[in-house]
Amino acid sequence: MSTTLLRSSTARAALRASTPRTARLGALCFTRTKVTLPDLPYDYAALEPAISGRIMELHHSKHHQTYVTSYNTFSEQLDAATAKADLAAAIALQPMLNFHGGGHLNHSLFWENLAPTSQGGGAPPAGALAAAIDDAYGGYEALKGVMERALAGVQGSGWAWLVRDTVTGGVGVRTYANQDPVVGQFKPLLGIDAWEHAYYLQYQNRKVEYFKAIWDVVNWAVAEKRYEQSK
């Protein structure tokens, strides 16, 4: 049976509500708002058999929720440190903010990069992005091979991303450790999670099978929109 996101409209509205917090460092004053767990546009089981419903449920409602909760907690601590002009404390909090903030950002992009086959998941890239992939790798199948090898080469935990280089204008595959987000010169187009929590319950030590199966539910339409928006 398909597992659905059981949130009423009232509960969702409450979840979306953010409480602004104002922090001050000398003459600088700014307001920070809480981040929230995004709803999925599909049921947890909708990506089967590529990704099991149980994995999706745990990945979204537990792991991603932890990044959201932790980021908000450390943000509050940063606000308190900033309000007291405690620079040392503020600096000490940055690694945790980067980790959990990156985890929230990466997963929010990841969920959008997936779709059931009934919603276009697995359809190959098209348009300008397909042309850019052809220029860089000679075709979609070649890109998949490059990305699968990059994912298999991730040591420990991390991600592989298809990105657009804003300097050269071309696309390429880059890996990022842990929850480091794609920022700066590169714009994220398509990300695949290589953390064990993304596949182990279903694939155990056969992560290469997961890297191959996930193409069946990749939503290239979203990647194409990101490509156009990155120009």
What does this structure look like?
The chain has 231 residues and is of the alpha+beta class. It is 48% helix and 14% strand. The chain has helices spanning 9-16, 53-83, 87-112, 127-137, 140-152, 200-203, 207-213, 220-229; strands at residues 21-25, 28-32, 158-165, 171-177, 186-193. The strands form 2 sheets. A 3-stranded antiparallel sheet has the order 4-3-5. It has a two-stranded antiparallel ribbon with strand order 1-2. A hairpin with a 2-residue loop joins strand 1 and strand 2 (28-32). Helix 5 packs antiparallel against helix 7. The chain is globular, with a radius of gyration of 19 Å. The chain starts with 8 loop residues before the first helix and ends with a helix. 29% of the residues are buried. Mean pLDDT is 89; it is low at 1-30.
The proportion of residues in beta strands is 5-15%
Order of helices and strands: HEEHHHHEEEHHH
Structural class: alpha+beta
Contiguous low-pLDDT stretches (5 residues minimum) are 1-30
Number of helices: 8
What oligomeric state do the depicted chains represent? single chain
Describe, in short, the structure shown.
The chain has 231 residues and is of the alpha+beta class. It has helices spanning 9-16, 53-83, 87-112, 127-137, 140-152, 200-203, 207-213, 220-229; strands spanning 21-25, 28-32, 158-165, 171-177, 186-193.
